[in-house]
Structures are given as structure tokens and as C-alpha cells.
Amino acid sequence: MSRKFADVKTELPGPKAKELLDRRHDIVPQGVGYGIPTFVESAKGALLNDVDGNKFIDFAGAIGCINVGHSHGTVTEALHDQVDRYIHTGFNVMMYDPYIEFAEKLAALAPGSFDKKVMFLNSGAEANENAVKIARKYTNRQAVVSFTGGFHGRTLMTMTMTGKVKPYKYEYGPFAPEVYHAPYPYHYRRPESMNEEDYSDYMLQQVEDFFVKEVDPTQVAAFIMEPVQGESGFIVPDKKFVQGVYDLCKQHGILFIADEIQTGFGRTGKYFAMEHFRVEPDLVAISKSMAAGLPISGIIGRKEVMDGANPGELGGTYCGSPLGCRAGIAVLDVMEKENIPARGEKIGKRVMEKFKEMYGKYDVIGDYRGLGAMCALELVKDRETKEPAKEQTAQVLQEAHKRGLIVLKAGVYDNVVRLLMPLVITDEQLEEGLELLEESVEAVMAGATK
Q1: How many other C-beta atoms are found inside a 10 Å radius of the C-beta of residue 172?
Q2: What is the number of structural domains in the chain?
């Protein structure tokens, strides 16, 4: 195919990237992983240029941080203005109005007809960790329930809540106490004897039984759930399950925390993915695309719940930095003016059409799924046995990178190709990227890798 946007002229890494990669290996611990072996020179919208002059279409979006695109003019203008005013004073020392403005805007957008308050932190893991603190303080209960396959971060508490062992938890114990993992629906891998409706009923019953087998509901402060599980392979739960868990929480006085860190800010076709399930979480953890890549996170919650903590019990040195808040305000401006959630829905529809076409051509694709523009392919060695095709998944990524497409893997079994392209991607860029992805899958299937 003729390529208008992607153009890889060198092997990866190229000469300049190779020099930088050697320096990286000398100074950066191996525990800090990387995907593609090159280094960025510049980025705009959904396109990346590396230090060797290679051009890439970005289907990764910094793991979902760049919904409004790289270096959007509205965001960079706001940042330049803020840098000229002041960089940091510490909100707990001398406050600043961008924090208040950003909080007000987020409270108005978040699901829930109740009064809300908002606080800011530095990372997604911090948001989830503090949501747990807030829930425990308000309920005066200790237990927290997350779900198998969920990912919530790499701090001690959030690593404990995460439902995948490698690479996140292996040999990093002991873990935080009073954290339990409830079963989560994985429709593609449900028992063959069950249809979707029966499986949904069965999984809800498993959660109810969980209160008998694992922890009494009177001891549980909160459930925490990703509306779509990210790191586990974009596993989309059914509405009945999510609403059923929410109803159980309400029945037992348990708070419901929505981890919207990867699903938020238009990714699924709505500002917040929980809107698809018609659930109003008590607390919502946010980060990633809320500020176009600036390190900031937050919690949006019921007013009375958020006010349960006493002064000084929440916060941190850099929490809600002026730069992050100004970038976040600019992001919301872009999202409204360019109707980013609607664009996410349109992108997702086109991607799923392409995935359906590919499913009919390549047996290695066992399942394709998604919600809005949060879409994935699950690769298997055999469609009957559904044995994960971990090696082939890694090969597809390598082939895509060589062709100029940045793409990520995911999945409990590391056999899922996930797409998180910036939602400002043009139709032309999207089509070229999808063709490159198909070309990569075809090459792996044919054994004709570059």
C-alpha cells in the first residue's frame, strides 16, 4: 500500500536511537520496560517522528494519555502562559485558581446527580490509593474488593488490588491486608454450556457468594472496578453485571469506586465509561488523558464522602500542579469544541468494522471487542481451544513497529493487541494505521515477517 504518514527508513533502532538505547541500558534499570526500541524527536496529533527521521502513526497514545493528541495547540498555549506566570506554589501552601476551575468543570461532567467535590493528585495509582483511603475513612470499614484481572497501579495498595501476577506483583509481596478479589466476567472465555445471559446471572451469583466465602459485606468499605478492564485486554463487562454489583454495594452500604483512569475523557465514546452502564459511582478515579500527558490525577466523589477526611489527611507536595490543572482545563475545552467523545464513538465503529473483516480472514484472531475507541484483538493458536497466541502477538507488534505503526499488547495471557489512538486522528491516518495492522497480522500468519 502507498503510505502517506508512516515511513520507517531504518532498522529499529536506527543509528541515533541505538546510541541512546545503549546509554539507556547503562543508566536505567531493566525493570523500567519499553515497547518500541526508538526515541521520539517530535509529535503532533496522532503522528510521531523519531530521532532517526522515521515517521509513525500512533495507535498507543502513551497508553491512553493522549486522547486530544500530541501537542495540541490549545494545550501548549495554556502551558506556555502558565509557565510565564508561576510553576508551583503547592496548593496546600498558597492556593491557585486553576485548581478550583478544573475541579468545578470535572464535577459538572462526572456522572451523578448529587453534589460532588474533587481533589487532585499526581498519578493514577495515587488516585486509586486515595480513593481507598477516603472510602475507609467515610465508612469506618477496612476491607476493599477489586476484581480478577483488574489493574489499578504499582504502589503497594494498588498492586495488591491488581488482579494479574506478572509483571506487576511477582516477588513483590507481602501485600496490603484486607484486599479481596471478586470474579469478573470474561465473556469470550465463558463456559461453552452458558449463553451470555446465563453467564451474566452466574457471575453475579458468584459475587453474592463471595460475601459468604471471602468477606462479610459489613466489613467492606468499597468495591473498585474498571468499566472496561485495560491491562487485562479491554474486557468489557455486560451492563447487567455492572449494575448488579452497584446494587449490591448500595444494599450493603459499600462505596462503589470507578477506576476511569484509562477509560475516561472520551475514550469509550462518552466522557466517562460508567455512563454506558447507567451507574453513578460514589468515587471516580481519573488520570491519563485528563491533561494531555501532564502528570496529574484526581478523584471526583460525593460531597459527604469526600469531606470524611480531616484537614491535612489528604494531599501531597505536587498534587494538582498548576501546569496539570491548566492543561486539564485546556483539554476539556478541546473536548467540548471538537466533540471528542463523539469522535471516539465514530473511530470505534470504524475499527470494529475493520476487525470484523479481519476476523473473517485470519484464524489467529479469536475475538475482537471494544467500547467506543477502546478496541482490541485477542489472538489464539486455535479458535476451538482458545489457547493464547502470546508469541504471535509479540510478532504482530514487532511487524507493526517496522511498518511505522505504534501499537501495544495487553491481556491476562499477553495475547491481546489493544488500540488507544489519539481521538483527534484523521480518517486518513486511521485507515492507514488499520491497513498497517492488518498487513502485520497477515505477515505473521504467512511467516513472511520483515
Answers
A1: 13
A2: 2
pLDDT value of residue 449 = 58
The reported pLDDT for the residue numbered 2 is 66
* Residue 404 near residue 57 (C-beta atoms within 8 A): yes
Residues 69, 71, 74, 79: is their CA dihedral positive or negative? positive
Environment class of residue 444 by beta-carbon count within 10 Å: exposed (0-12), middle (13-18) or buried (19+)? buried
In 3D, which of 169, 161, 274 has the Cα closest to residue 222?
161
Q: What is the pLDDT of residue 448?
A: 61
Q: How far is it, in rounded angstroms, from Cα 450 to Cα 448?
A: 7
Domain check: are 239 and 318 in the same one? Answer: yes
Q: What does pLDDT average to in each consecutive run of 10 residues of the chain (450 residues)?
A: 88 98 97 95 98 98 98 98 98 97 98 97 98 98 97 96 93 95 96 92 96 96 98 96 97 98 98 97 98 97 97 96 98 98 98 98 97 98 97 97 97 97 98 98 83
CB count within 10 Å of CB 86 equals 11
Side-by-side strand order, sheet with 40-44: 40-44, 47-50, 55-58, 405-406
What are the angstrom distances between the C-alpha of 418 and each of 94, 119, 335? 42, 30, 23
- Domain hosting 384: range is 15-58+339-446
- CB count within 10 Å of CB 386 equals 16
Would 259 be classed as within a structural domain? yes
d(CA 118, CA 100) in angstroms, rounded, equals 9
Mapped onto helix, strand or coil, the DSSP state of residue 431 is helix
Strand order across the 283-286 sheet:
116-121, 297-302, 283-286, 255-259, 220-225, 143-147, 179-182
pTM: 0.96
Boundary-marking domain end, from 302, 337, 372: 337
For residues 354 and 375, is the Cβ–Cβ distance under 8 A? no
Q: Are residues 310 and 365 in the same domain?
A: no
Query: What does the pLDDT read at residue 447?
Result: 82
CATH number at residue 273: 3.40.640.10
Query: Does 163 map to a domain?
Result: yes
Q: Which of 359, 375, 186 is nearest to 367 (CA)?
A: 359
Residues 185 and 305 occupy one common structural domain: yes
SS3 380: strand
Residue 159 confidence (pLDDT) = 97
**Which is it for strands 405-406 and 55-58: parallel, antiparallel or unpaired?**
parallel
Cα gap 287→301, rounded to integer Å:
15
